Each structure stands twice: as C-alpha cells, then as structure tokens.
Amino acid sequence: MKLCSACLLGINCRYDGRSKPSKKVLELARKEVLIPVCPEQLGGLPTPREQSELRGESVVTRSGKDITENLVRGAKQVLKIAKLFDVKEAILKQRSPSCGCGQIYDGTFTGTVIRGDGVTTALLKKHGIKVVSEEDL
Ligand code: SF4
C-alpha cells in the first residue's frame, strides 16, 4: 500500500481543475493499493485555484498571495493518512510545491527548476516515509 498524488491517478484536483494521469502509476494501481491524496485540497484550497510555487520557505501564488499555511496544513493531513494506514512509501507528482520530490520550480513562475522538495514530500521524508516521483517509476 502506498500514498499517491491524486492527480496522477486521473483525479481532477490540479490548480487548473484538471488531472495529470500517469500511465505507469495507473498500471501500478491495478496491482497494488494506491491511496489518492491531494495535499492542496486537504489544506483547504479550492479547485481550480491559483498556481503556486515555493519561494524559499514560503509558498506564494502567481499574484503574490502567501498560501504556506494551507500547504503545511495539507501536508500534516497527508502524514495523518500515512500513519493511519501504516504507509511507508509515496508516489508524488514531480515539481509541485506540495508533491515535488527532488525538483521544484523556483518561485519566479518562469518554469525554472531547482533542487528541492515540496512541502508534503519534505514532511513525509522527515517522518521516514520513502517518497519517489512518477518520473522515478
Ligand atoms: Fe496533484 Fe499534489 Fe498538486 Fe494535488 S497538490 S494537484 S496531488 S501535485
């Protein structure tokens, strides 16, 4: 059993109201239980919503609104779900400010990628949960 970014499973939870289904993730879902989670929805943000990126320790929207609190709240809820089901591994969407694993956008909204983890990924890793991205499968 693993946690999985809901958008990778075809759930329309992304900022643009769409999903980002991954063929490899969907194939895996036929063989093992993948628990879909969307930390940004769990953090109280609507769908669709403004695009956001990590900028240092904060998460800001394209128009400059600080939504760090929402992403932190969502990350905590995802950790709660992981503990509830004793999940030790997660497959999360690469480069998202919540779900990015090893790569994120730099906060300038120019498509510039830097090294780093999303807020949820960082919290899960801190609690010993292995995180991989869909691109690592
Ligand atoms: Fe997908 Fe994660 Fe963004 Fe939700 S927060 S839409 S699960 S990448």
Number of helices: 4
Order of strands in the sheet with most strands: 2-1-5-8
What number of domains? 1
- What series of H and E elements makes up the topology? EHEHEEHEEEHE
Q: Which structural class matches the secondary elements?
A: alpha/beta
Which segments are poorly predicted (pLDDT under 50) over 5 or more consecutive residues? none
Note the overall shape. Answer: globular
Notes on the structure:
Pfam families: 2-thiour_desulf. This protein is α/β, with parallel strands linked by helices. It has one domain (2-136). It is built from four helices and eight strands. It has helices at 23-29, 39-42, 68-84, 119-126, and strands spanning 2-5, 34-37, 52-55, 58-61, 89-92, 103-105, 113-115, 130-133. Strand 3 and strand 4 (58-61) form a beta hairpin. Helix 3 crosses helix 4 (119-126). The longest helix is centred in the middle third of the chain and has 17 residues, at 68-84. The chain is globular and about 40 Å long. The two termini are 15 Å apart. Bound molecules: iron/sulfur cluster. Residues 5-7, 13-14, 38-40, 93, 96, 98-99 line the site of iron/sulfur cluster (SF4). Residues 5-7, 13-14, 38-40, 93, 96, 98-99 line the site of iron/sulfur cluster.
Quick recap:
This protein has 137 residues and is an alpha/beta fold. Helix content is 26%, strand content 22%. It has one domain.
Output the keywords:
single chain, 137 residues, alpha/beta, four-stranded parallel β-sheet, two-stranded antiparallel sheet, 26% helix, globular, binds iron/sulfur cluster
